[in-house]
Amino acid sequence: MRMSKRFQTLAVLGVLALGLTAVHSAVVSLPADSASAEERSVYLSLSDGVETVEAGKLLVYTVTVRLDGSVQKSVRVSMKLPNYANTVEASDSGRRDGAWIVWDNVVLDPQTTRRLYVNIGVDPYVSDGTILVAQAECDGETAVDNTEVSGREMGRDPSFAIRVNDGKKFAVPEEELRYIIEVENISEWDDTFELRTE
């Protein structure tokens, strides 16, 4: 994938797809007038965990926000959906505002990480080679994820809808949270899948 020289690699994930190992990078832009590493307190990354996706399949984006400051902070997190996104669902009461998913008042505790999820169904009629570009923003930070459409499946809808929710809008330090993961088969045929959590 092409990256501007103003992008900095944050993480590299190895994923297994179709028997092959692919390398996927999440990148964060560093504007010239942004705060220095010493001044920054919020760090942001965005990834769907894959390099390529078939038309008609499901993508699960993870927006990761980390607060390295020493004081609790409430932030607004937003993610711009890629073109050719059909069905869309967001965790943690994220709301849709045009082409964006918005989470208002996301509470970040010091030295902790929050993960927000967005599920999208890729348009089954999108052409091979199309690049799906998603973008996340928070507290002046920007993260971008690029995924190429490869292997068109005409007319086939996403197989699964995945929802992750802890039933809460806010949590206090050291509170134990119980996440519920719901997987719904929305196709007309039986299927199997691998579910990973982190």
Topology of this structure?
Blueprint lengths: L6 E11 L2 E10 L12 E6 L4 E2 L4 E10 L5 E8 L4 E6 L4 E3 L2 E9 L3 E11 L8 E8 L2 E9 L10 E6 L14 E6 L13
Parallel strand pairs: 4-12
Antiparallel strand pairs: 1-2, 2-12, 3-5, 5-10, 6-9, 6-11, 7-10, 8-9, 11-12, 13-14
What does this structure look like?
With 198 residues, this protein is mainly β. The chain is 0% helix and 53% strand. It is built from no helices and 14 strands. The protein has strands spanning 7-17, 20-29, 42-47, 52-53, 58-67, 73-80, 85-90, 95-97, 100-108, 112-122, 131-138, 141-149, 160-165, 180-185. Strands 1, 2, 4, 6, 8, 9, 11 and 12 form an eight-stranded mixed beta sheet that branches. A hairpin with a 2-residue loop joins strand 1 (7-17) and strand 2.
Q: Average pLDDT value?
A: 78
Taken as a percent bin, the fraction of beta residues is over 45%
Rg on CA atoms, Å: 17 Å
State the helix count: 0
SSE order, one letter for each helix or strand: EEEEEEEEEEEEEE
Largest beta sheet, briefly?
8 strands, mixed
Helix content: under 10%
Low-confidence stretches: 1-38
Structural class: mainly beta
Give the end-to-end Cα distance, rounded to a whole number of Å: 26 Å
Q: Which geometry do the CA atoms define?
A: globular
Q: How many strands in all?
A: 14
In short:
The protein is an all-beta fold and 198 residues long. 0% of the residues lie in helices and 53% in strands. A hairpin with a 2-residue loop joins strand 1 and strand 2.
